[in-house]
Amino acid sequence: MAILDWMNVRELLHQCSALTNWKVLTIIFALLNLRSLPLVWHIRVLGAICRLKFFPPAPFTPKTGPAALFRPMIISSRVNLLDCDYNLHKSNSTYFVDFDMSRVHLWVSHLAPGIINTSKELGLPVNIHLGGVSCNFKKEIKPFETFEVWTRVLCWDRKWLYSISHFVKKGSVRPKGYLLQPWRQIKLAKIQKKHDTGSNGAAVDSDMNKSPNSPVIFASAISKYVFKQGRLTISPEKILQNNNLLPPKPAVAEASSPPKFSANEGTSDDAAAASPLLENSSVAANEIIDLSLKPHGDGEVWDWDRIESERQRGMRIAKLFAGLEALNDECKYDDQPALGKFRDLY
Questions:
Q1: Is 258 helix (H, G, I), strand (E, B) or coil?
Q2: What span, in angstroms and rounded, lies between the C-alpha atoms of 123 and 129?
Q3: How far, rounded to the nearest angstrom, does the alpha carbon of residue 137 sit from its chain's CA centroid?
Q4: Mean pLDDT of all residues in 277-283
Q5: Are the CB atoms for 208 and 82 separated by under 8 Å?
Q6: For residue 262, what is the enclosing H or E element?
Q7: DSSP state of 61
Q8: H or E element in which residue 143 lies
Q9: Range of weakest confidence among 73-82, 162-171, 289-298
Q10: Which of 168, 177, 175 shows the shortest CA–CA distance to 215?
Q11: Residue 277 pLDDT greater than 50, yes or no
Q12: Nearest Cα to Cα of residue 222 among 97, 135, 99
């Protein structure tokens, strides 16, 4: 009887051990793929919103805001197994989740205060809605490879605000500083000083902030947003002004500017304007988008003329994107035979 009892105990321990091993493996797998698990997307967005609520960034002033308008926000991450497709690289569909996160962090600092102030001004809440995203893929990202997503305001017209995002190899693009994070700025300065003096204290003629080579771009994307108060469209310019991101507008520009509020539900006028640009442009859209990461001349003052010049430069890209509105007219399938119909998994 004692022998039988001991055999039962051994069998029970073996079953518990096997069960424990499966639990440990499941926990490890979940931790390695944490950001791809169900509901984690919502937690990541909620985290960015809580950061605005409990740790708000220093408010922009009329002096500091315009210089920060076109500066990028950076998020860093790593490709996990659930991000990969059968080719064992990051699946194209998963890029858009990371674009979401990068845009959320940018909007928390750039747009949320302006939306809140505009809502108070109108006495009703103003909401922001994503109107479209287009992505151009260039290089694969392998499993467990680290990457960064750089997102910034590109331009705006009377209805839409456009942002541009780049997936880049970590370290291939390096910022000169961090406007909203002084502690990172201090750390960067210490590393810079240590790097410049070298290990033996001698001066080193180099700049650690310079990228070793040209930016390694995995993918580039452009997005557009619209601001709504009910059926009323709020001009992006109004939102930016209410967060001190635009300098005072000259009287001549003010007289010719479009209305800040519009009940027009149609598409942006720039969609129509894109047609001749698409026909006559000799530069491919992806080449223009890639130029966005290249440095521009950095003066000390971002006045209205300089802001407008950069906005017009961005509109060259935005008009190409707006031309995709014509795709809706290609949905002409009524009274035509189809190839077939299949039910996918629920």
A1: coil
A2: 19
A3: 15
A4: 46
A5: no
A6: strand 261-262
A7: -
A8: none
A9: 289-298
A10: 168
A11: no
A12: 135
Question: Is the Cβ–Cβ distance between 163 and 106 less than 8 Å?
Answer: yes
Alpha carbon of 117 to those of 112, 227, 232, 325: distances in Å? 9, 13, 16, 31
Q: E strands within 66-204?
A: 73-78, 127-137, 146-156, 161-169
Q: Which residues contact 56 (CB under 8 A, 6 or more apart)?
A: none
- In this prediction, residue 257 has a pLDDT band, given cuts at 50, 70 and 90, of low
Residue 1 pLDDT greater than 50, yes or no: no
Nearest to 321 by CA among 101, 163, 152, 150: 163
Token reading at 75: 């998020």
CA distance to 49, 55, 74, per residue, from 295 (Å)? 30, 30, 16
Does residue 321 carry a pLDDT above 60? yes
- Which residues have C-beta within 8 Å of that of residue 68, sequence separation ≥ 6? 60, 110, 179, 180, 245
C-alpha to C-alpha distance for 123 and 43, rounded to whole angstroms: 30
Question: 223 and 162 in contact (C-beta within 8 Å)?
Answer: yes
Sequence-ordered list of residues with C-beta below 8 angstroms from that of 328, at least 6 positions apart, any chain: none
Read off the amino acid at residue 58: A
Contact call for residues 226 and 233 (beta carbons, < 8 A): yes
For residue 233, give the H/E element and its range. Answer: strand 232-234
Among residues 233, 238, 239, 229, the alpha carbon closest in space to that of 257 is found at: 238
pLDDT at 272 over 50: no
Give 220-252 pLDDT, tens digit per residue: 999 999 999 988 999 999 999 999 999 988 876
| Both structure tokens of 73 | 């926000």
Per-residue pLDDT tens over the stretch 84-124? 999 999 999 999 999 999 999 999 888 899 999 999 999 99
Q: What is the pLDDT of residue 301?
A: 81
Between β-strands 73-78 and 127-137, what pairing exists: parallel, antiparallel or unpaired?
unpaired
Instruction: Give me 87's structure tokens.
Output: 């080719």
Hey, how many other C-beta atoms are within 10 angstroms of the C-beta on 163?
26
Q: Distance between CA atoms of 188 and 203, rounded to whole angstroms?
A: 18
